[in-house]
Design brief:
The chain is mainly alpha-helical. Helix content is 54%, strand content 0%. It has helices at 9-48, 65-90, 94-97, 118-141, 154-165, 179-186, 190-200, 207-232, 246-261, 300-307, 327-334. The longest helix is centred in the first third of the chain and has 40 residues, at 9-48.
């Protein structure tokens, strides 16, 4: 008689348990090896301490002396944008937020908090902080001058929009009234910084000043694009209580700036005839550019004619009742009207 011997139940459990322990240990060992490999690589990368090499030639000049006046001219516009955005979004300006930057310049005229919805307030708050950053960067690279006297009062904007339409709007245009009015008023300002930086670019030689200008131009262009897109989305909307659409407002403002600057078409609204659109194929004009879709450029003289709202770089007014500061703006003021 033969007996077939089977392993006991308890012995089978023991073998299974041993195999489980071995597998678990193997998996743990694999995880440990992987972890040690990763850490080893991290330590290797950390200990090598890679350095990003400078793209500039070793004997390059950071800031040329002639760069200073050209970039400082932009400080006038940066002060205007910083104050206008800060007050509208937060209800206070540089005197509260960054008093060391104003260098004793007088507070702006008519600045106040705007009645903005949450989306618009978030946009303008970000713009405000960006402009403060721009002033800090300019201070660090070429220095600042005292903040010029600025007029951002409803009365000043009302005068500007009346001139754009060729008659007195009733009631007078108030930029602080609501979000749409405020964004229409913003259409007036950042674009001037954009074309100014494009115009200044060929005149800058130092690698630090060229880098600063490019960085400033990038953000100013972005701000203008956001404003234009905001208004383009509402192009056919009537601006209450006027019988004019948003698109009409942008067209009138652009036409006024071209007229004041006296140097042809360098400014176009958000809707254009096809002959002024990209490749002469579109009536949309979300971004303002020339025949080759390259941003327009303006000289300091052209910019002052517009922001003074006088058509003369020698005659202050508009946003700068006493004129701009810095050597370039001051030299223009010394010349006859």
């Amino acid at each position: 008689m033969y007996f077939i011997s089977y392993p006991s139940l308890s012995h089978t459990h023991t073998n299974t348990a041993i195999m489980g322990v071995l597998l678990a240990s193997t998996f743990s060992l694999i995880r440990l090896i992987i972890w040690m490999s990763i850490m080893s690589n991290c330590i290797s990368i950390s200990s090598s301490n890679p350095i990003c090499e400078s793209p500039y030639p070793p004997h390059a000049i950071p800031v040329y002396e002639e760069d200073v006046d050209t970039l400082q001219f932009a400080v006038n516009l940066e002060f205007l944008e910083a104050e206008y955005f800060l007050w509208a979004a937060l209800g206070y300006g540089l005197d509260y937020f960054a008093p060391q930057l104003v260098l004793g310049g007088p507070p702006p005229i008519g600045a106040q908090e705007a009645k903005l919805d949450s989306l618009t307030r978030n946009i303008i708050t970000e713009f405000a902080y960006q402009e403060v950053g721009h002033l800090r960067a300019l201070e660090k690279t070429v220095g600042l001058f005292p903040r010029p006297l600025l007029d951002v009062s409803p009365k000043n904007f009302a005068k500007l929009f009346d001139e754009a339409f060729g008659y007195e709007l009733d009631p007078p245009f108030d930029p602080y009234r609501d979000s749409l009015n405020y964004m229409l008023s913003c259409y007036v300002i950042p674009y001037m910084g954009l074309v100014g930086y494009v115009g200044a670019n060929p005149l800058i030689n130092g690698y630090q000043t060229k880098r600063l200008l490019a960085g400033l131009l990038g953000v100013e262009s972005g701000q203008d694009a956001v404003i234009r897109m905001y208004l383009y989305e509402r192009a056919e909307e009537l601006v209450h209580p006027y019988n004019h659409t948003v698109a009409e407002f942008t067209i009138r403002i652009s036409e006024l700036r071209n007229k004041l600057a006296m140097c042809g078409i360098k400014d176009k609204g958000i809707i254009v005839p096809p002959q002024l659109g990209a490749e002469n194929r579109t009536e949309t004009n979300v971004l303002s550019a020339n025949f080759y879709s390259i941003s327009y450029e303006r000289t300091p003289g052209e910019i002052l004619r517009v922001v003074y709202n006088t058509g003369s770089e020698h005659l202050p007014g508009g946003f700068y009742p006493l004129g701009g500061n810095g050597r370039i703006a001051k030299e223009f003021l010394k010349m006859p009207h």
